[in-house]
Specification:
The protein is built from five helices and four strands. The protein is an alpha+beta fold and 159 residues long. A four-stranded antiparallel beta sheet has the order 1-2-4-3, with helices on both faces.
Length: 159
Amino acid sequence: MPNYTQPITDLIQQRFSCRKYSREPIPVRMQEKLRSLMTEVSSGPFGTSMRFDLITAEGQDGKALRGLGTYGFIQGVSGFVVGATGTGQQDLEEYGYRMEQILLAATDLGLGTCWLGGTFTKSAFANKIALEDGERIPAILAIGVIQDEDSARNGVMRL
């Protein structure tokens, strides 16, 4: 279980689907914390194997994110959490459980996140994570520094 600095109930209440991000990079310290957590969650509670990676823009250079399509739903994002899961009896539930732990850790760090299930280019993300036979990418997270929390919380998609 991740060590959050705030009660999990507070994090759940703070978290919202952020679709507008500042273009500034995710601070290195935050990236390190997230990557550390991702190595800890290499299997679900019922044993399905999975792996996660944080793909980020370096500085103001978004080359690492080029070609990672989100069909215009996300603006200014500086990173993505992408994961791959093997198959198992409850693989999707386990994947969602682990992804939610990562999402709450990002919220704890003050970052914005947005789940993306059907609105991303799966082949591009499969290349980034080197998807192997028998694995799939059920969903990803857009992640980054929130541009303007009030505006992000009250955007058109939320209405």
